[in-house]
Amino acid sequence: MDAVAPGRPRLVEVALPLPLLKTFTYAVPETTRHPLVPGSRVVVPVRNQRAIGLCVGESDGRALGDTAAKLLLDVPDAEPALDAGMLAVCRWISDYHVVPLGLVCRAVLPAALTVAARPAPAGKSERMLVLASELPTLVAREAAFRRAPQQRALFELLEQLGGRAPVSTLVAQLRCTGAVVQGLVQRGFARIEREGRHRDPFAARAPDAAPTVQATAAQQRAIDAIIAGAPGASFLLHGITGSGKTLVYLRVLEHVVRVERRSAIVLVPEIALTPQTVDRFRAVFGDQVAVLHSGLSDGERLDAWRALRRGDKRIAVGARSAVFAPLADLGAIIVDEEHEASYKQAETPRYHARDVALVRARHAGARCVLGSATPSLESWQNCLDARHTLLSLPERVGGGRLPAVHVVDLRQEQKVATPEERARRLVISAPLEAALRQRLSRGEQSILLLNRRGYASFVQCPDGHVAVCPDCSISLTYHRTPERLVCHYCLHQEDAARSCPDCGQAMARQRGIGTQQVERLLVERLPSARVARMDVDTTSGKWAHSAILDRVGRGEVDILLGTQMIAKGLDFANVTLVGVIDADVGINLPDFRASERTFQLLSQVAGRAGRGPKGGEVFIQTRVPGHHAVRHAATHDYHGFVAEELPSRSSPPYPPTTRLANIVVSGPEEVAVAALARDVTEWLEHAVLRFSLAITVLGPAPCPVERIQTRYRWHTMLKTGDGKQLTRLLRGLMGWVDVAADLRVVVDRDPVSLL
Fold first, then answer.
1. Angle between the 178-186 and 167-174 helix axes, to the nearest 10 degrees?
2. Contact (Cβ atoms closer than 8 angstroms) between residue 118 and residue 195
3. What distances in angstroms separate CA 106 from CA 23, 52, 72, 302, 319, one per listed residue?
4. Whether pLDDT at 204 is above 60
5. Is the predicted pLDDT of residue 164 greater than 90, yes or no?
6. How far apart are CA 504 and CA 519, in angstroms?
7. How far is Cα 171 from Cα 161, in angstroms, rounded to an integer?
8. Which residue among 264, 542, 657, 753 sits deepest, i.e. has the most Cβ atoms within 10 Å of its Cβ?
């Protein structure tokens, strides 16, 4: 029976994960397995199939008209999946970002509670490949793997992943067979072990007891201000690197959890930071800490979610999605490194976790603390406008000094005798190499940053033809271990062609540098150095992030080389040198935030040096030493950077001076995409004129990266100072637009990137 019998049945509105800006009316049977309240999961019929939806409230049935309501099929849970506060947050995300409420609810819940996934079984084990011996020199490797290049690639990848990784991960990344794995094992270079999958992923980590630390006067002022804050109050904690923001977080949460008996959320921008952060908080709060991030299995996430829901654990730590942790009586939300772009969700719903944290804190009556050494200009402007309370930590704890920064002009490094030396010095300049050798002799550690993975940015033939992705308008990046060409947008991979498909000449020229090339050069120039590389390629294994950082903490690594994931949050007392291989990566991107991101990245990575009593130095290599992002990063001068950057956001206006929405149209045929983009723009222009809206419409135009995953992309940008007008316009647009199945219109409100 799928329709309601005569009478006046109870009707409810159900949010379904469908691309429609509406909810759906269903009738409730006279009896249900569990009580049905707003926030309950329900099973309902949709187009002769079953779907999981969420009850969002009672219905008056007006939307049905003369249509009979269908009966919902089941209420599977004894308690609602979302409480009233979280349901209100979901409604805000839906309204603000113009996204169907059902899609928001699906994003908020663990995947294991949706129809698309099932909980992972407990007690299962997986095969791990573990290094059993070392081949320290290049000569020995050439001899051992002369006739087994795939085994060499596997051996080197396993090294990069910390000497231990799941077999499934290695085989998938190398696209090799199990025979390659067995060959490495049979030759004694590796062994197979079985490892249980822990449903509590951090149970095996035993953090040291939290040291007793006395808060400085500045820290105590910040702690007192936050504790005394009104319900829903928000704070921006601006503390230079090494100023002790984490201690402020810990003291605030001690009060919230132990004195007020409330719960808390701690957000970090990178999975790489989660193990260190979890260790620090578990040292104080023990097993009251639960972890939520995308690196966990569905089963692990579900277990953590349920423990938080039951109140067994009172503190949720994790990346972006942890802002949705199902905690009752929420007392505080901490957003560490609040300026990070990774807090922005790249897929629908395109929420920003920092903004959701502020909204959730207001609904829950909790304090929200945004922390950063380099706050986003939006948050800084909110302080100037008295929306946030500004708290400052202007000095490093323990009387430590910020490291001295040396700017190396790479244009001068080119003025050397031979081409080989010029090429080498453009990667590792003479001053930086000398500093690295000095640290090695002292037994101290170094960090090198290059925000570009792979071996070379692209390969090119003598006539100038570049290997490009067949599905995206982007060049393929050359990776040497294993040797392949990779698109960093769609992850397309292909063998590194020896000859140009256009002219037949050798593809011998490699342009640009990546972390793999720097790693190889370090091994050649500093053979005694123990180098660990940390980028997307070496951290695909589940615990690869923590494995690498644990090795650094134990002193088993002399030089940590990596992309932006090593630039923040890391605190190693023996790191006395930081080198930025190429500060110009990203500085000239066609994005209004390019300078801000460069300043933040340089400032953050510089702060990794000199956090112990030995002090430290930083070398920034650049071709534009006069750029204001470089100049102010070199002097650790956030206020100076803001004073120079903010005026450039006024004319033409960009955030924080104005609000943005980016309307992206995509599809497989460029002509159809361009035509729809023009129609969308004309509709917007007509609506702005008709209703006299204070909104500027710019476009349409091809996106800077015009094609991704076989889909062409055009966009139209909206600028305004009136957020309510923008919401009404966007809702009207998405209600009007009706596109073919192969075309798509996406609203990205408050975009962090325009590429």
1. 120
2. no
3. 14, 9, 18, 14, 17
4. no
5. no
6. 31
7. 13
8. 264
